[in-house]
Amino acid sequence: MKKTLSYLALILLSLLFIAPLFWAITTALKSPQELYLFPPKWIPSVFRFSNFADAWNIQPFNLFLKNTLIVTVLSTLGQLVSCTLVAYGFARFEFKGRNLLFLIVLATMMIPWEVTMIPQYMEFNYLGWINTLKPLIVPSWFGSAYFIFLLRQFIMTLPRELDEAATIDGAGKLTVLMRVIVPLMGPSLILVAVFQMMSCWNDYLGPLIFLNDQTKYTLTLGLSQFKGMYGVDMQSIMAITCLISIPPLAIFFFAQRYIVGGIASTGIKG
C-alpha cells in the first residue's frame, strides 16, 4: 500500500509538470476561434498541424536558428576549452596563492549578471561589438566559475600516478591533459556541455541587450516578435515554443545518464 501511494503521488505530481506542455501543444494545434473559448477547450476539434509551418514562415526563423546554433556551438566549445585548462591548473599545479585565487574565482558566482550587465555593454560598445554575435560568444572563452569548480573537483578524484606515469614516458603537461585527463573526463565534460547549451539556447536577456538588427536575432528574440503593441499571436507563440523546445528536450533525454554521473563524480574529493 505504501509503494502504491508513492507511485500515485508521483503520477499526480508529474501531471502538474506535464499540463503546461500539453496545453502549449494543444494550443498550437487549435484554430483561431478555439483559442479564447471559455471554459477552455483542451483538445482541439481539428488538429491543425499546418500552424507550425505557418508560424515558422511568418518570421525568418531559419536565420534565427542559424544564429542560435552559431552562438550555442561556439559558446559551448569555448567553455569546454577554457574551463578544462583552468580546472587542470587548479587541480594539478602547485603555485603560491592557488587556494586564494580559486576562492576569488568561486566568489564571482555571487555576483549576479545584472550587476555586470552595464559595464559589459559599455565595454562591448567601446570594442564595436554591439549588434554582433561576439558579446554572446567571446565571454564563454574566458571560463565560468561554476564549470571550473565542477571540472576541478572531478580532476582531483583522478590519481596523480596517472600523470606521473605519463611524465616518466616523456609527456609534457599539455600532453598529460589531452592524452590522460581529458579522456577520463567524459561525464563531466558532457555535463558542462549540456548546461552551457541549455543556457545559450534559452538565453533571452543577452540577445535583447546586445542585438538590434533582426538579421542577428536568436530564436528567443524571434519568438518575442509575435507580441505586438495591440495584441499577442498566441497560436504562433505556442507553435514556435514547441518547435524550439525539441532540441533541448532531445539533448537532455540522451544525456541524462551522463548528467547524473557527472554531478555524482564531482563531489567525491575536495
TrEMBL record:
Q: Which UniProt keywords apply?
A: Cell membrane, Membrane, Transmembrane, Transmembrane helix, Transport
Pfam name, any one: BPD_transp_1
Instruction: Show the PROSITE patterns listed in the entry.
Output: ABC_TM1
Tell me how this protein sits in the membrane.
Answer: Multi-pass membrane protein
**Membrane spanning residue stretches:** 69-88, 100-118, 138-155, 176-198, 236-255
Q: Which CDD domains match?
A: TM_PBP2
Q: Which InterPro entries match?
A: MetI-like (IPR000515), MetI-like_sf (IPR035906)
Q: Name one GO biological process term.
A: transmembrane transport
GO cellular component terms listed in the entry, alphabetical order: plasma membrane
The entry's family comment says: Belongs to the binding-protein-dependent transport system permease family.
What's the name of the protein? Sugar ABC transporter permease
User: From which source organism is this entry?
Assistant: Paenibacillus rhizosphaerae
Q: What is the taxonomic lineage of the source species?
A: Bacteria, Bacillati, Bacillota, Bacilli, Bacillales
